[in-house]
Amino acid sequence: MALDPLSATFAALADPTRRAIIASLATGEKSVTELAEPFHISLPAVTKHLKVLERAGLITRGREAQWRPCRLEAAPLQDAEEWIDHYRAVWEARLDRLEAYLQDLQAKEKKSGRKKK
After folding, report:
1. Which tens digit of pLDDT belongs to each residue from 64-101?
2. How crowded is residue 7: how many other Cβ atoms within 10 Å of its Cβ?
3. What pLDDT does residue 2 have?
4. Residue (of 34, 37, 35, 29) closest to 70 by Cα position
């Protein structure tokens, strides 16, 4: 079953190893060996993670002679950020309404002379 691009991005980012690879690539392109260095997993395991990231469009892998650089692709991350920002705005609006309601309650308590417990 094919995932939509946003679902593929979130699925790829669900794994901490893949998130660490993305963070590493944020500083520039790297080889598979360089990406594998900080992890205690085999090169084939790292390659599997890279394939997931590549299918999600988060990285591209090149071929330059014997060197196979991996590069971060920002577009899917931008799409994820936009989706998250939409819901951040929704929750901030809800929290603002809650804050206003609580302030209103506090003001009413002061007017009625009730003491806080």
Report:
1. 777 789 999 999 999 999 999 999 989 999 999 999 99
2. 11
3. 64
4. 29
Cα dihedral 13, 15, 18, 23 sign: positive
Element (H, E) at 67: none
Give me the residues paired with residue 30 across strands. Answer: 70
SS3 (DSSP) at 98: helix
The answer to whether residues 8 and 56 touch, using CB atoms and an 8 Å cutoff, is: yes
Tally helices (H) and strands (E) across the chain: 5, 2
Q: E strand or H helix at 26, and its extent?
A: none
What would the two tokens of residue 5 be? 């691009």
